[in-house]
Amino acid sequence: MTHPLRFGIWAAVHGSRAAHHDPDEPDDASWDRNRALVLEAEALGFDAVLVAQHTANPYDDERDQLEAWTACAALAALTRRIEIIAAIKPGLYHPVVLAKMALQIEHIARGRFALNLVNAWNRAEFERAGLPFPAHDDRYAYGAEWIGLVDRLMRGERVTQTGPHFQVTDYQLRPAGSFRPRPTIYLGGESEPARALAAEQADVWFINGQPLDDVAALIADVAGRPAANAPLRYGLSAFVIARETDAAAKDEHARLLALADRDAGLRADTRARTDAASVMFAKTDAAASRHVGTNGGTAAGLVGSYDTVAARIRAFHAAGIELFMLQFQPFEAEMRRFAEQVLPRVR
Q1: What global pTM score does this model have?
Q2: Which residues form the Luciferase-like domain (predicted)?
Q3: Among 98, 220, 235, 240, which is least packed by CB within 10 angstroms?
């Protein structure tokens, strides 16, 4: 079954997604900017917003950083249609507390809330706060127990469970199930533990931006596994550069690459704080000289004329991608361009 084609945006939680020295893109992670951005995205016809979770700016802790969950609660009250997806790092929240927060935002949004489970990669975020930062696969084992509890609690079940990491006794949360059985669960990550957890617990698996053949192979691998919440759906992160012609888009890509070169020091500092086992960074390190944007960015190939970008989106959709989670720069202007020029071509 082919699911409807959907488009979302990454909120500007730490400012720029491609180059921090772009004169056309404010390095602005403020609530005011994000509120206006998401309200405009909803009005333009976008279907979702992903609010990535960081406590301090992961690139430079002197820069501002939007807090994901309080922002999502406010966005839930301000919007009417758009899906609000909050990223969550299990090591920062007890599952009972997080499940209660998720149910409250679900209630405010009247059934439009989702959480995106991510395996934290920024060691400093945990270690500087005195929090444990286990090895990569151990974090996924922790996350599997964590999300299993959150799932049941969000469904309103009365939960008693004793596991390696959590002991919960006779716990039940209300209100629950007011709009659907529970909020949607997204999961990011491409390692073997991430793929297994996606099949076991998620509704939607997020894939980082990369070429079509690689995405199709990842989908084939995970689609072949038994899925607890079948059928598992798929999302793709991508940075878009769309212009009248392929040549003009290529020129803009080259401009952003040149600007991104000035961020080499920031990237090196970030990489030094990153878990060496992170699959995302292993892939993006090798491609940093050719692509801009986070989480794969332009590696997905959505760079070209309006017709070229539309054709590539249709090809990804045919391979199984339902939701495209998009980045732009300068964000507001390029988001409008995409809505005006590309959305009509694919819808």
Answers
A1: 0.94
A2: 6-322
A3: 220
Q: Rounded to whole angstroms, how far apart are CA atoms 319 and 329?
A: 27
Q: Could you tell me if residue 341 is inside a domain?
A: yes
Residue range(s) defining the domain that contains residue 169 = 6-346
In a domain, 136, yes or no: yes
Per-residue tokens: 175? 């209100």
Phi first, then psi, for residue 7 (nearest 5°) are: -130, 135
Q: Is residue 1 part of a domain?
A: no
> Is residue 50, in this structure, part of any structural domain at all?
yes
Question: What is the CATH classification number for the domain harbouring 127?
Answer: 3.20.20.30
Are 77 and 151 contacting, i.e. CB atoms less than 8 angstroms apart?
A: no
* pLDDT by position in tens, the chain (length 347): 468 899 999 999 998 888 888 999 988 999 999 999 999 999 999 999 999 999 998 888 899 999 999 999 999 999 999 999 999 999 999 999 999 999 999 999 999 999 999 988 888 899 999 999 999 999 999 999 999 999 999 999 999 999 999 999 999 999 999 999 999 999 999 999 999 999 999 999 999 999 999 999 999 999 999 988 889 999 999 999 999 999 999 999 999 999 999 878 766 766 776 767 666 555 555 555 689 999 999 999 999 999 999 999 999 999 999 999 999 999 999 999 999 999 999 98
